[in-house]
Amino acid sequence: xxxxxxxxHNLGSMNALAALNQNQNSLQQVLQQLSTGxxxxxxxxxxxxxxxxxxxxxxxxxLNQASRNAQDGISLIxxxxxALNETQSILQRMRQLVVQANNGTNTSDDLKxxxxxxxxxxxxIDRIGNKTQFNTKNLLDxxxxxxxxxxxxxxxxxxxxxxxxxxxxxxSGTTLSFTLDTTNKTITVSDxxxxxxxxxxxxxxxxxxxxxxxxxxxxxxxxxxxxxxxYDGTNSLDGQNITTTGNTLSFQIGPNGNTTLDISIxxxxxxxxxTGTSNTTVxxxxxxxxxxxxxxxxxxxxxxxxxxxxxxRAQLGAYQNRLEHTINNLEAAAQNxxxxxxxxxxxxxxxxxAEFTKDNVLQQAAISMLAQANQQPQLVLKLxx
Length: 385
Known about the structure:
By secondary structure, the chain is of the alpha+beta class. The protein contains seven helices and twelve strands. About 30% of the residues are buried. The model has no long low-confidence stretch (mean pLDDT about 90).
């Protein structure tokens, strides 16, 4: 198709202008990508890519925050464990004093002086238990501990039989059921989801026996010889249960649901330590007294307190180790997901610079051609003389 010399429509100029506009739009887009470092700056750039990247970004933000939550948990655990380290040092000193007191060379005044120091140490254990805090939360006063509560078996009946149920590793609101096998001489504890069986003749559990059902979180401490088939003189523990109650600290250690870690810390004050022995006078650490109680009862209570504090520190250490591995996993997941998100949204600077150079040249060419096209109608003037 051929066109004569016309002045009402300059098709060459219109085509050059359209090309210039396209080049300018492309150049502006590339300039934005280069200046922001992002390939997707609006939904129009890549609608599907934007939707995918936003979901990834939500996960990345959640992973990073979960990592910070886990680090806060470690800080709390270190605070509690550091305080218990001092409590344990105090217990060691108390035991030394009790041994010192059981010596025929001591006078009554000597024993009073020794007891004065023991009383001060007991008070310091209580002060540590009452005042150890993290972000104003008490850690060692039992407010974060899970306790055994009555089920079909009452805790008072277990205590009377010389049995202490340490449920600090069990989630609050759990029902723990017992199964006795007198033939195979085993005891099984179940929380409804997990069961654990230990070898132990239920008809003859010796004083001082500790049964650690670590998979369930229960520890049974026997302060007296017990026949569990008639632990209270009549009833059997077989088929019976206890429940748990109390508060726990829950840490969100993942970006999505069902990714929490519950931490429980038992009461670490003197009245809660040293329990579970067969003692009749020194029933807990606060009752230790070298002027009124026997050496054997005093030492038994202190040794039991040392075991309780050691068990709690071991549990806290296990929590901390788990959280450290959790942080490593979260950081690796965040790094890998960030790399994937970067591949979708970030600008390939080399490719964008090549595109910028091309569009810049095309823009200059389009401007030049537009100028040439605008000169075409002036040829008509030569025809008009």
